[in-house]
UniProtKB/TrEMBL annotation:
Domain of life, per lineage: Archaea
Pfam families on file: Csa3_N, HVO_A0114
Keywords attached to this entry: DNA-binding
GO MF annotation list: DNA binding
Organism: Geoglobus ahangari
Domain Csa3 N-terminal residues, every copy: 4-122
Keyword rRNA processing: no
Name the record gives this protein: CRISPR locus-related DNA-binding protein
Keyword Ribonucleoprotein: no
C-alpha cells in the first residue's frame, strides 16, 4: 500500500527531509504539507522540498495545503476531510514543523474520524522521534461508550499490577460471567490486556490509565 505523509510545515524544510527518509517514501506515495500561511519563507521552503522530491523520486506527488490559523473549527474540518479522502493510503502524520496551531488542528481531526494513522513528533533538540499511541485518538469515543461498571472495573485494576476476574467480581458485587464479559470488551477496546485465561487475570494497559 502507498503512503500519504502529512507534515505540518513552516519555514524549515529539514523536518520534511528527515520524515521522508525515516518513513521510506517511495514512488506512488504522496506528501501533503500543511501550512498556516503561504508567505515567502514558506514558498522558499516548499520549493526546496519539491526540488528534493523531483530529483530523488520519479512519481511522488507533493501538495501544499493552507489552513487559516484563526479559524480553528474550519481548519479541523478541512484536515479531517483531507484525511478521510485518503482511502487507499497508509497514513503517516508528522507534527514537527510549522505553527503549533496546525498540530492541534490535526490532533483534533484525528479524534473525530475513524482513520488509522501513525503520528510522530520529532523532539526540538533532535534527540529522537516520539510516536503517539494510536489509541489516544479513539479514547474520547471509547470513554463515551463505557458504562459506570466498566469504569469502576478499570479503577480497581489501576490499584493492582494484575487482578483476577474473581477478585473483580467480589469487589464490584457482580457475578463472574458479567465481569468476564466486561473484561473481553475492555480488551477489545485495548484498555486492558489479558495475562492469564485460566484463571482469567487482567492488567491495565498504559492507555487504560487515562480513563
Amino acid at each position: 500500500m502507498n503512503t500519504a505523509l502529512i507534515i505540518t510545515f513552516g519555514f524549515d524544510e529539514k523536518f520534511c527531509y528527515r520524515a521522508i527518509m525515516r518513513n521510506r517514501i517511495k514512488d506512488g506515495d504522496r506528501i501533503i504539507l500543511l501550512t498556516a500561511g503561504v508567505v515567502e519563507k514558506v514558498k522558499r521552503a516548499y520549493e526546496l522540498v519539491r526540488n528534493f522530491i523531483s530529483t530523488t523520486y520519479k512519481n511522488v506527488e507533493v501538495e501544499l495545503v493552507e489552513l487559516n490559523p484563526r479559524d480553528f473549527v474550519f481548519g479541523v474540518e478541512k484536515v479531517a476531510t483531507l484525511i478521510k479522502n485518503l482511502e487507499n493510503y497508509e497514513i503517516v502524520v508528522n507534527l514537527s514543523g510549522g505553527m503549533r496551531i496546525l498540530s492541534l488542528m490535526v490532533y483534533a481531526a484525528l479524534t473525530l474520524i475513524d482513520k488509522d494513522a501513525k503520528v510522530e513528533i520529532e523532539l526540538e533538540d533532535f534527540s529522537g522521534v516520539v510516536e503517539l499511541p494510536k489509541e489516544i485518538f479513539t479514547l474520547p469515543k471509547v470513554l463515551s461508550k463505557l458504562s459506570s461498571e466498566k469504569i469502576e472495573l478499570i479503577r480497581i485494576a489501576k490499584e493492582k499490577w494484575e487482578v483476577s476476574a474473581m477478585k473483580l467480581a467480589e469487589a464490584l458485587g457482580k457475578d463472574v460471567t458479567t465481569i468476564r464479559r466486561h473484561i473481553y470488551e475492555l480488551e477489545r477496546l485495548k484498555l486492558v490486556e489479558i495475562v492469564s485465561r485460566k484463571p482469567l487475570k487482567v492488567r491495565l494497559r498504559e492507555i487504560g490509565g487515562l480513563v
